[in-house]
Amino acid sequence: MWVRRPVVMARAGKVQGMGSDKVWGRCVLPACVMLLSASMSESAWAAAPSPLGQWVRVDSAVKTDITKCGKDYCAVNIWVRNPAGAERVGDRLVMMLAPGTHADVLRGSAYDVRRRRHYLITLTLDGTHMTTKGCILFGIICKSARWNRID
Questions:
Q1: pLDDT digits (tens, 9 = 90+) for 77-91
Q2: pLDDT average, residue stretch 23-33
Q3: CATH class of residue range 45-149
């Protein structure tokens, strides 16, 4: 079944293909994240926790380094216990994050470069601990991981 996808006009805030007088109530996730981050005040970003640094997954199977890459965050695997498994050294996840509803939460989207997959992502930071939750299929299928800061 072919579905016609609407095109959001950034200036007018209207949607082409859905009637000129209708405003589309939902936007494509990257566009939503960009609009949200552009509207965030400097104080909101200052209050947001930072995921920057090195982290080890609680099962000790993966170590990753999170750095800034432009306006985004990049998580790169720097060590994996089983290089023949699903995770590899050098795997990179590019995350477009914005502060969430709580001070310790960052939300947005992520792109797995090797697997060529897009995810909805939530990072919850609690001191030296972080929980990541990545979802596909509009948030229907999700997977979480717990991490400990090592730097």
A1: 999 999 889 999 999
A2: 38
A3: mainly beta
Inter-residue contact 119 to 112 (CB < 8 Å): yes
pLDDT reported for residue 76: 97
CB atoms closer than 10 angstroms to residue 100: 16
The pTM is what? 0.67
Q: Which two tokens stand for residue 107?
A: 């939300």
Neighbours of 55 (CB within 10 A): 25
Amino acid occupying residue 39 = S
- Residue whose tokens read 């990545």: 134
Query: Can you say how many angstroms the Cα of residue 53 is from the centroid of all Cα atoms in its chain?
Result: 16
**φ/ψ of residue 126, rounded to 5:** -140, 85
Residue ranges of the alpha helices (H) in 27-132?
29-39, 42-47
